[in-house]
Every structure is written in C-alpha cells, then in structure tokens.
Amino acid sequence: MRVLVAEPISDEAIEYMRKSGLQVDVKVGMSREELIQIVGDYEALIVRSQTKVDADVINAAKKLKIIGRAGVGVDNIDISTATQHGIVVVNAPGGNTISTAEHAIALMLAAARKIPQADRSVKEGKWERKKFMGIELRGKTAGVIGLGRVGFEVAKRCKALEMNVVAFDPYVSKERAEQIGVRLTDLDTLLSISDVITIHVPRTKETIGLIGREQFEKMKDGVIVINAARGGIVDENALYEAIANGKVFAAGIDVYEREPPDPDNPLLKLENVVTTPHIAASTREAQLNVGMIIAEDVVNLSKGLPVRNAVNLPSIEPAEFEYMMPFLTLAEKMGKIASTRLGGAIKKVKVTCSGKLAGKNTEFVTRALLKGLFDPILGSEINLVSAKPIAVERGITVEESKVESAEHYESLLEVVVESNGREMYLAGTCFGSEYRILKIDVYNVNFVPRGHYVISLHEDKPGVIGRVGTLFGKNNINIAGMIVGRSGDKPGGIQLMLLLVDDPPNEEVLNEMVKLDGIIDATYVEL
Length: 527
Prior knowledge:
About 35% of the residues lie in helices and about 25% in strands. The chain is α/β, with parallel strands linked by helices.
C-alpha cells in the first residue's frame, strides 16, 4: 500500500507506517496541480489543514482508499465525494486536547505574573522588581466558558492550582461538572464573580462576539482574560478598551480574528497582553498524537481491520448509501431543531427506526442525530465519528430501537430528546432523495427542513399571525413560507408555527416577536 504524506506529520508516525510494511512518500509543499498529477498512484493520502482535497483531487485518485486528516476539522476534505468513491476519511479527535489546555494555563500564569515582560526587562539589562508585581491564582475564582474536552481539562488544572472553579456551558450536565468539583452557572454570574476568565468554545455563529463591551462591563475590576480557543469569540476592540481603562488587569491571547494579526492591532501595543502565534496545539506530544492516530488507522485499513476514527460511512454499499443519505440528513436536521428549541444540557435521546429503514445500519442515523444536536454548540468540531463519544462524555443516555413496519410510510424515523425535564418529539420520512419532517410534538407539520426557520408556539386566536407578519415586514424580513400546526381539529388552544424566511432575524426581532399578544416563544434555526 502506497501512502502519500502531503503535509508534515511526526517522524514517528511515518516510521510506524513503514515498519508496518507500507511504502510512504513524503512530498510536502506540492501545488494543487502537482497533487492531482500524482495522487492517482496512491492508496492513502495524509494531509493537515492546508491541502484542499476537493472533488477534482478525489476524482484523480483512482486507487485511493483512505484520506487521513492529522487534526480535528475536515472542512478541507470533500467528504461526500470521498464517500461516494468508497474512500474512508479519518481524523484525529482529541489528539491535541492536553496541549491546548496546558497552553491556556501557561497564558494564565504568564499574565498573572507578568513573566514575558519581566523576561524582556532582564534581557535588556534592567532589574525592575517592583514594576512586575503580579497576583497569586490560589484562592481566586476561575470562570471557564465552555466545558468540552479542552475546557474540562483546563478546569481540572485550575482545581489543582487551588482555585475555585465555575463554568458556563448550557449543554453540559451538572453531573459532568461535579466530576471535577466545578459549579455550573449562567454567563452573567460567571462574568461577575470570576477573577480569571478562560474561553474554550468553538467559533460558531452563536459564539462570535460572545465577549464584547456589555460582557466586559459585567466583569470584576482587575480580571484576567484568556483566549486560546478561536479568534472572534472575544471582541478585540472591546478587549483593548477594557485593558486600557483598567477593567482588565491582563490578557493572554493565542488566537486572533485575523491571523497573523495586523501589526497595527492595538492589542499588540499593550504591555499587559501576553500573546502567542496560535500555538496552543503545537507541542511535540500533540503532533505525535495526531500523527500516530492517523498512521494507526491507515495501517489498520491496509490489514483489513476496522478504522477507529472514520468521519464518513465507508462500509455502506453504493445502493444502501443512496437510500440512507436522506435519512442521515433528516436526522441531523431533527437534532438541530431539538437542540435549538430545548436548549440546555441534553439528558436522553431515543431513536426509533421503522419499516424498510429498520433493516439498514441505523447506527449512522443515530450518529447523524447526535451531530445535529451538538452542531449549535460545537459547530465544525462535531462529526459523525465524534458524536457518540461526546454523548458518552456528557452523560447522555442514547436508546435505539427498530420496528419492522411503519404505518402509512415505507420508512419512518422518530426521535425523542429530553433536556432539563422537557421532552421533544419529532417524526419524519424520506421519499427518494427528499426528506420531510411530519410531526413536531403533537403538531402535524409536513415540511422540508431546509433554509432559515423561525419556530414558535402561539395562542390559536385571530390576529396573532398578522401581527407577526407586520413585525417582520417592519424589519424588512421576507416570509417565504408558513406552516401552522394544530394539535387537533378544533380551533383554540396552542398552535405551532414555522416561518420560512429569506434572512435570519436578529435577537432583537425575536424578542419583539415574543412580546406580541398571543406569542408564547420563538426560536431561530438554520436548516
């Protein structure tokens, strides 16, 4: 088996593959044209984030059996085309978790004790002991925003430093946090009581600008802010102002909205900003880990053994793949709706596949549902392979069942999601390549979940829908479609409304909508 390594991975990973009998060619720095020209000679391709493995590359790779991404994100790989060609795509989830967590702690200590500034001063021939007065972390309160893999490890290390630790993560259970003695709280409380705030959430539409001027105003005077997650989560202008006016004692920054940052970025001019060039995951151990994870999967595949970190569906035959794909899309859309509507920490998920669908490998349907549930929280960091382990990490109970027949339909997918004592039921089916959601809770809806949707409950009385239309018109939001579901045949009671809109409404519009007479709630979801 010939392996093409197109981007740097650890020498140990390369040696491991060679000792396993594989022919490994390392060709780093190729142009796209060069890659397309030679990729047809290889059964395995290993890349990192720079190489774009698109449809043209895959179509040229006539022998390719596996694509390895030495890292987490697979945005640079056309997974759908790879799957259709029977090519396994694998990644390395969790390989750099500890490195990133340790770097966040390093930034925290460096910012608290002004270590880089003192180091520079001594090397300049000075001895300014009074100038570099720092603060102790012991006894202080650390606020961890995001208690996923990295945030969890950071919180553990903060506890080891004898800090009090609180965390904000609406999608993590109280039990998960209590495993390491961390108290969950809301974001505003965390901001107001924390001496150190460290951020560990992915960059998504919901987290861009999560920490801005309003949030800095709620913080303690003299707080330390750490961002080793993603640029854009912290508003850089607002951070600069907060440091300049003394609200923030110091900041540790590994990531920027634009990388590398503009030399004129005002944060780079501040003495009490400790910064590094996006190197939180750059340790020998992390690079060894991700390289070895990929190398082991490539070797396993060459021996006919299962791979551990596949992000697609390599075992499905083309005919079955064609039948299953709409159901995977349907399941993911259902998950997004449930996550958005319920909010909070998911406790339990039940998936029931009926009819022809029950005779297929429905594990992937469940994985797709979980992917949709986590998508609003984790964004591109979640995929089909990581969905189940993350569900286990978060203490989510997953039940799967099959029923041989489905009344009225060839196949039926039913889902129940439980969160914070609330349950949501969804049912749907597929007709060829078209997927449709048939029911949400007790409401019959029958729609294609694609586009921008506002989902709300309202009282079944005259004028409610008209007021919503007026509000959206006033805000220049065009309503492209509307579905109203009743729980029965008689008027009155509560109705479910789905509005398909051309442009997503902002939070202010949704808040105004909820204040309208008769409207009970309103949430936006992009499907």
